[in-house]
């Protein structure tokens, strides 16, 4: 379901704001991620950096390097 939506957004040069508790879902389609805690953006950057386990957000979310 997510890939077709991402494809349309890319083709039409649209921005998609997706809210998810699933890091895996976000990683499949989002080149950029934000982490929100208690209503505030606490981290903003490349999804690859988030998933690398080397960002401060990775530590906050308990994500380890793969």
From TrEMBL:
Organism listed in the record: Klebsiella pneumoniae
Q: What name has this protein been given in UniProt?
A: Thiamin ABC transporter, ATPase component thiQ
Q: This protein's superkingdom? A: Bacteria
């Amino acid at each position: 379901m997510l890939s077709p939506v991402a494809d349309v957004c890319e083709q039409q040069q649209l921005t998609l704001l997706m809210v998810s508790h699933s890091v895996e879902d976000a990683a499949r389609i989002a080149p950029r991620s934000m982490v929100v805690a208690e209503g505030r953006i606490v981290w903003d950057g490349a999804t690859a950096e988030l998933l690398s386990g080397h960002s401060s957000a990775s530590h906050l979310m308990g994500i380890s390097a793969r």
